[in-house]
């Protein structure tokens, strides 16, 4: 009989916008035949609005309320799941309190310069970036400084700042996490 815990685990990927959270979640989903959700996409589907529209119409506080409610709903889904959080989601204590000890949180760590390279042509759909008067790299550095302590509370930090490819490391981590515990008897 399979342990209930083995069937209701959440691997939660966090990090700054542009760190590849959704891409990695999709890759893991395909490789491991597991479901994945992107919290921002889930929020957009449930509200019928893009994140940028929610921000522009209701402001960040309204967005964070909707994001918290969406996180609650997603974490209540039964079954194994890979979840890509929004960049700011783990930076609020009430969101962190929703995470269970059995969940595995993984921070995809990159430098502001690397993130700026990833996001150079994607700022229009990123309300925090499109509303900033600073350079993209400077805005990202400010956000990283504000969020680093939150991100670094993750169970695992995969550091891509030195140009390390972290996709294989994440794959092996996820594979081990979702594998049932060994049932071998010792002799």
How are the SSEs ordered, and which strands pair?
Blueprint: E1 10-14, H1 21-32, E2 36-38, H2 39-47, H3 51-75, E3 81-84, H4 93-96, E4 104-109, H5 112-119, H6 127-130, H7 136-151, E5 156-159, H8 167-178
Description of the molecule:
With 187 residues, the protein is of the alpha/beta class. 48% of the residues lie in helices and 12% in strands. A five-stranded parallel sheet has the order 2-3-1-4-5. Helix 1 packs across helix 8 and helix 5 crosses helix 7. The chain is globular. The two termini are 22 Å apart. Residues 1-5 have low confidence and may be disordered.
Structural class: alpha/beta
Spatial ordering of strands, largest sheet: 2-3-1-4-5
| Order of H and E elements | EHEHHEHEHHHEH
Largest sheet: 5 strands, parallel
Helix content: 40-55%
Name the CATH homologous superfamily.
P-loop containing nucleotide triphosphate hydrolases
How many distinct domains? 1
Distance between the termini: 22 Å
Indicate the CATH architecture: 3-Layer(aba) Sandwich
What's the total helix number? Answer: 8
């Amino acid at each position: 009989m399979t342990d209930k815990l083995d069937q209701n685990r959440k691997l939660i990927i966090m990090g700054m916008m542009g760190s590849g959270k959704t891409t990695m979640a999709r890759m893991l989903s395909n490789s491991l035949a597991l479901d994945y959700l992107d919290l921002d996409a889930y929020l957009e589907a449930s509200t019928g609005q893009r994140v940028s529209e929610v921000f522009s119409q209701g402001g960040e506080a309204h967005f964070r309320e909707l994001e918290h409610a969406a996180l609650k709903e997603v974490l209540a889904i039964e079954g194994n799941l890979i979840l890509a959080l929004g960049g700011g989601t783990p930076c609020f204590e009430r969101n962190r309190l929703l995470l269970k000890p059995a969940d595995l949180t993984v921070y995809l760590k990159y430098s502001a310069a690397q993130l700026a390279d990833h996001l150079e042509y994607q700022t229009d759909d990123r309300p925090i970036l499109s509303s900033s008067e600073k350079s993209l790299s400077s805005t990202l550095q400010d956000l990283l400084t504000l969020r680093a302590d939150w991100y670094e509370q993750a169970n695992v930090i995969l550091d891509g700042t030195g140009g390390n490819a972290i996709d294989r490391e994440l794959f092996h981590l996820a594979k081990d996490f979702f594998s049932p515990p060994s049932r071998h008897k010792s002799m």
